[in-house]
Amino acid sequence: MAQVEIVSFGYLHDSPPPAHLTLDLRHHFRDPHINPKLRHMTAADPAVRTAVYNTPGITALINAVSAAVAAFASGPSAGPVTVAAGCAGGRHRAPAFSEGVANLLTANGHTVTVLHRDMHQPVVNR
Is residue 122 part of a domain? Predict the structure, then answer.
């Protein structure tokens, strides 16, 4: 099993961190930021996680990333696998998605650490 680091981030705060696999969640998945009730919340709030996980395609992508991590881990070179997931502000989609991936990878026997680089940044006005 692999040692996995997952980093969530916001493209509007800084460049993506270095990673073996970088996912851009900005254009294909519903943004909780557009809902005024969710805008000032983060993925630490159940309502945000529910909104993200109910977005079509998210579960399939979580499963695909888990499979990709297993593929990286089965390669001939040992070492940790880093996954970076980004959205616009790094407060909603990316951290909720990252936690979903971490939960699945942990259930599959991987050792996972998660860093939410921008989740506690101020809400980006856009």
Answer: no
Residue 110 in tokens: 């991987």
Enclosing H/E stretch for 46? helix 46-53
Backbone angles phi, psi at 100, to 5 degrees: -65, -45
**pLDDT of 30:** 87
Report if residue 121 sits inside a domain.
no
**Could you tell me which residues are beta bridge partners of residue 111?**
3
- What is the model's pLDDT at position 1? 83
CA distance 104 to 111: 11
CA proximity to 107, closest of 62, 76, 72: 62
Q: pLDDT tens across 63-77, in order?
A: 999 999 999 998 888
Which parts of the chain have pLDDT scores under 70?
A: none
| pLDDT (0 to 100) of residue 122 | 93
User: Which residues are within 8 A (CB) of 18 and not within 5 positions of it... i.e. 6 or more apart?
Assistant: 82, 84
How many separate domains does the chain show? Answer: 1
